[in-house]
C-alpha cells in the first residue's frame, strides 16, 4: 500500500547523472499510523484511514475513534484500497520506505490562497484597448444577455482565487530518505510551505 500524508518542506534542486538540474519538492512524509480499516462488509467500500502528526487536543469522539491505534494524530486522511493485496492493520506504521525512486504518484493538497482577484489574473481575460478614450481597461465585459435578467451560475468573474483542492497526477519520486522520512518529488506540488498533502501511488 503506497500512500502517505505528508507536510511540504519546500523546494530545492538535485543533479542527475548527466548533470541536468532537476527541481525537487521535499516532503516530510510520515510516519503515518493506520487508524481505521474500512471494508465492503462494514462500510460499503475498501479504504484505510491514516493519521499524521501528534496533538494533545483531541475531542472525545476523536479520542474514541483512534483509541485502537494508540495514536493521537493531528491530521486524518483516507485512501482507497481497491485492488490492493496487502492491507495494513490498525496500529501499523507506514513510513517513507513504501516509496522508491522512480515511482509514479499522485499528490493532492490545497493550493495557495491569492485573495480577491480580478478576471485578468484569475481567468486570463484580455485587457481592453487603451486608445480613443476607452475606459474598459480591466473590466470583465458582458456577464450575460438581457433576457434571463440574472447572472448564470459558474460565470467567470472576479472573486476569491486559489485556496482550492488541487490534485496533480503522474509525478515522479526523485529522492527517498527513509532514515529521516523525507521524500523528494520532481517538480512542484500544490500548496504553500508547511501545508499538508496526500500522496499515493500504484503498488
Please give the count of helices.
3
Average pLDDT = 92
CATH fold field value of the largest domain = Elongation Factor Tu (Ef-tu), domain 3
- Overall structural class, as computed from helix and strand content, comes to mainly beta
User: How much of the residues is beta strand, in percent?
Assistant: 35-45%
Biggest sheet details: 6 strands, antiparallel, barrel
Strand line-up of the largest beta sheet = 1-2-11-10-7-12
Helix content: under 10%
N-C termini distance? 6 Å
Determine Rg (CA atoms, Å): 22 Å
How does CATH name the architecture of the largest domain? Beta Barrel
Indicate the CATH class of the largest domain: Mainly Beta
Low-confidence stretches: none
Question: Can you count the beta strands?
Answer: 12
- Strand and helix order: EEEHEHEEEEHEEEE
Number of domains: 2
Shape: extended
The CATH superfamily of the largest domain turns out to be Translation factors
Could you walk me through the main structural features you see in this protein, from its secondary elements to its overall organization?
The protein is mainly beta and 203 residues long. The chain folds into 2 domains: 3-115 and 167-201, Elongation Factor Tu (Ef-tu), domain 3, CATH 2.40.30; 116-162, no CATH class. It is 7% helix and 41% strand. The chain is built from 3 helices and 12 strands; from the N terminus they run βββαβαββββαββββ. It has helices spanning 40-43, 60-65, 119-123; strands at 3-15, 21-29, 32-38, 47-52, 75-80, 93-94, 104-110, 113-117, 159-162, 165-177, 182-186, 196-201. The chain has a 6-stranded antiparallel barrel. The protein has a 4-stranded antiparallel β-sheet with strand order 5-4-3-6. A two-stranded antiparallel sheet has the order 8-9. It is extended, with a radius of gyration of 22 Å. The model has no long low-confidence stretch (mean pLDDT 92).
Amino acid at each position: 500500500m503506497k500512500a502517505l500524508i505528508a507536510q511540504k518542506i519546500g523546494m530545492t534542486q538535485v543533479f542527475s547523472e548527466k548533470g541536468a538540474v532537476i527541481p525537487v519538492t521535499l516532503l516530510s512524509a510520515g510516519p503515518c499510523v493506520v487508524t481505521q480499516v474500512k471494508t465492503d462488509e462494514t462500510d460499503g467500500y475498501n479504504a484505510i484511514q491514516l493519521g499524521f502528526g501528534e496533538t494533545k487536543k483531541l475531542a472525545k469522539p476523536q479520542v474514541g475513534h483512534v483509541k485502537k491505534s494508540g495514536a493521537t494524530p493531528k491530521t486524518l486522511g483516507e485512501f482507497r484500497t481497491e485492488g490492493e493485496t496487502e492491507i495494513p492493520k490498525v496500529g501499523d506504521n507506514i513510513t517513507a520506505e513504501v516509496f522508491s525512486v522512480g515511482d509514479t504518484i499522485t499528490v493532492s493538497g490545497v493550493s495557495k490562497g491569492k485573495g480577491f482577484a480580478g478576471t485578468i489574473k484569475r481567468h486570463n481575460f484580455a485587457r481592453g484597448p487603451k486608445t480613443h478614450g476607452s475606459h474598459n481597461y480591466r473590466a470583465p465585459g458582458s456577464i450575460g444577455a438581457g433576457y434571463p435578467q440574472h447572472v448564470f451560475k459558474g460565470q467567470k468573474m472576479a472573486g476569491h482565487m486559489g485556496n482550492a483542492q488541487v490534485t496533480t497526477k503522474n509525478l515522479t519520486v526523485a529522492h527517498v530518505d527513509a532514515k529521516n522520512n523525507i521524500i523528494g518529488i520532481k517538480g512542484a506540488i500544490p500548496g504553500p510551505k508547511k501545508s499538508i498533502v496526500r500522496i499515493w501511488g500504484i503498488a
